[in-house]
Amino acid sequence: MKKLGITSLSLALALGLSTLPVMLQAAPTAVSSVATTASTSAAAQAPINKVGTSVAKKEQAITTDDASVNINTATAEDFARVMNGVGLKKGQAIISYREELGQFTAIEQLQEVPGIGAALFERNKDRLKL
């Protein structure tokens, strides 16, 4: 009987402690969102971002309705936010292609970027502009 009580106590303690990592994982997310909000508001006040390009140029990459993106001035984050099926990695591939070969002269040239196929282009061509 005594052994059963110790086993039950151990099991209850183990179950109680098993939720501790879940609670600890949730806390950094809340703290990081506060830090992100603070850094976002600081970035909004500064006229120049980290790489030295003006905020106005960055805002120029996205139209006012956030439905399209200028493929010659957009950042990887802009591509990821506006284009369906494009994340930061493909967005960076577009920028790398643009930096190597120069500005796009036609929206269709986007299909030449590795990872951007015809289907992905067709799905997003209404969101793209020069």
Task: Describe this structure as you would to a colleague.
This protein has six helices and two strands, in the order H-H-H-E-H-H-H-E. With 130 residues, it is mainly alpha-helical. Helix 4 packs across helix 5. It is rod-shaped, with a radius of gyration of 24 Å. The N and C termini lie far apart (79 Å). Keywords: Signal. InterPro entries: Competence_ComEA_HhH, Endo/Exo/Phosphatase_dom_1, RuvA_2-like. This is Competence protein ComEA. It holds the Pfam family HHH_3.
Secondary-structure map with pairings?
Layout: H1 2-18, H2 20-45, H3 55-60, E1 69-70, H4 76-82, H5 88-101, H6 118-124, E2 128-129
Parallel strand pairs: 1-2
Helix pairs in contact: 4-5
Structure summary:
The chain is mostly helical. The protein has 6 helices and 2 strands, in the order αααβαααβ. It has a two-stranded parallel ribbon with strand order 1-2.
User: What's the architecture of the domain at 76-127 in CATH terms?
Assistant: Orthogonal Bundle
Q: In the CATH hierarchy, what is the class of the domain at 76-127?
A: Mainly Alpha
> Percent range for helical residues?
55-70%
So how many helices? 6
